[in-house]
Hints:
The longest helix is centred in the last third of the chain and has 21 residues, at 565-585. The strands form 6 sheets. This protein has an 8-stranded antiparallel β-sheet with strand order 11-10-16-7-8-15-12-13, with helices on one face. Strands 2-3-1-4-5-6 form a 6-stranded mixed β-sheet, with helices on both faces. It has 603 residues and is an alpha+beta fold. It is globular. It has 5 domains: 2-177, P-loop containing nucleotide triphosphate hydrolases (Rossmann fold), CATH 3.40.50; 190-274, Translation factors (Elongation Factor Tu (Ef-tu), domain 3), CATH 2.40.30.10; 293-371, Alpha-Beta Plaits (2-Layer Sandwich), CATH 3.30.70.870; 378-485, 2-Layer Sandwich (Alpha-Beta Plaits), CATH 3.30.70.240; 488-596, Alpha-Beta Plaits (2-Layer Sandwich). Strand 30 (533-539) and strand 31 form a beta hairpin. The chain contains 12 helices and 31 strands.
Amino acid sequence: MNIRNFSIIAHIDHGKSTLADRLLQMTNAVSAREARAQLLDSMDLERERGITIKASAVTVHHTYKGEDYELNFIDTPGHVDFAYEVSRALSACEGAILVVDSTQGVQAQTVANAYLAVANGLTLIPVVNKIDLPAADPDGVAMEIEQVLGIRAENCINVSAKTGQGIQELLDAVCETLPPPRPPTTTQLRGLIFDAKYDEYRGIVVYVRIFDGTLRQGDKIRMMGTGRTFNISEINRYTPFLIRVKELGFAQVGSISASIKTLADVRIGDTITLEVNPAEHALPGYEEPKQMVFCDFYPASADAEGAGRKGDYETMRETIEKLSLNDASFSFEAQHSEALGFGFRCGFLGLLHMDIIQERLEREGKIEIVQTAPTVSYRILKTTGEELEIHNPADLPDMGVIAEIREPIVYVEIICPDDCIGELMKLCDSRRGIFKQQRYLSTGRQILDYELPLAEIIYDFFDKLKSITRGYGTMDYELVEFRADRLVKVNILVNGDPVEALSLICHRDSAETRSRTILQKLREQIERHQFEIAIQASIGGKIIARESIKAMRKNVTAKCYGGDVSRKRKLLEKQKEGKKRMKQIGNVSIPQAAFLAILDQGD
């Protein structure tokens, strides 16, 4: 049988999921009655937001020149935060369909995904989608693809995933243009684990692509990375409906169940082989993703002393472990905060990734979560020459032993309309950006390249970019290096006590401005107490900003209807002493909303 394995890649909202739906219909994998929009997007969250979060693998059949072809394709996410999902999907394929919207043209993630596919040695089929729209310019977009990516314009296939126009030609091109799977290099079984999920009834379900040999039901397999062995109880394929099969042959894709109960037994990128006749060498796995953004998650049930309900913390831990199996691109470790109790320090690939993980945790674990402000990782060079990496400002050593603090610098590629260039340059300059180059893309659009500190773009940079470009601007970024600068740690003190969960690392020039913004927001969030509360920001022992929350006043002289004024003074002095004593022993209750106050810092 002829087999073709390919992925569908594109910028966000260029029509990947709609194209996948139409491929399923044109190959008769689903009937008109069974068809629905975003069929491969199984999560409610994906359907609500209209984005793909998880890559979905499916098998269909197509007849070309009288021969039957088995097509295994993967619909991938389009947002930069889910690039790790895309890279994993591409490593299980020999080709890729690169989709470009005929009304929007080449966008930042189009370029990034195309380069990712080329780096993996994949054959590309360029597709210009949405040609049925009145604003479509398929010829102009084809020329853009040739100019930016070097793919000949005449090789582009014009399709409309909505109406089905051009889909038959695309299926024929997949069969003719994409290469068949490479020949097997060994007779022993070798299968790559490219995904996994936890099922309440079947345990851990593992998704594999067979590169060598054949996997049969009842086989005893060994995970080459962990050394654990399991008996295959069930093998399934997706067409896109679950069908049970007896075996997975060479170059085929499917899922296996083997009564795997322990999450640590499965690693994404591991190789499975047979226990009785094992392969000598494992398949090359995946490069570990580099988390870019870090924040803390805590159960919302924690009180001011940090003693949250154990049940919520345990539920959160179990949910995070199951989620990490389904999404291997985020990291987590246990964390404790005096203000918020027990929780987890998590690392993400970006802000959208962080937002999606939080929402999935709340939905799948049925718990309410408090999230602290996101930060980036820093590398610290001590005066002794020792270098360490920190993900939390609270872990920063004493400034006296620090030679320099290095922050992550990213290379940002912005595609935008001509009339927005000036405003975007001002935005990048205000975020300590270094201009690299400006390139012509097509009539009315250009590419701006900047080097920017990651910490300056994780808050609201993308929102401002969209606002300036009226929604037409896109960006992609990649880590370049860690670079030393005049960075300082700003401590936030409430009533003289530092609150580590609110501390931050920022540039010395912007420390005072950002501190004042944070303190003003904290003043709005913290309720008034019986005594005055001082909120301060400090660098080392120096206070750089202060706000005060006035005490609630109680008219203790209301019961005095006359007489000597000394009676009123006596009562006021007594109240003053009481407030002084209360301030010494009283705790300031900081609401959870205050910990999110530094998220929206403005400019």
